[in-house]
Amino acid sequence: MKIICIGRNYIDHAKELNNPVPAKPVFFMKPDSALVIKNRPFFYPDFSDDVHHEIEIVLKINRLGRSIDEKFAGRYFTEIALGVDFTARDLQAECKEKGLPWEIAKGFDYSAPISEFIPVSELGDIHDLPFRLDINGKTVQEGSTKDQIFSYEKVIAYVSRFMTLKTGDLIYTGTPAGVGPVKIGDRLEGYIRERKMLNFLVK
Ligand code: ZN
Question: Which letter does DSSP use for residue 22 in this model?
Answer without folding.
Answer: P
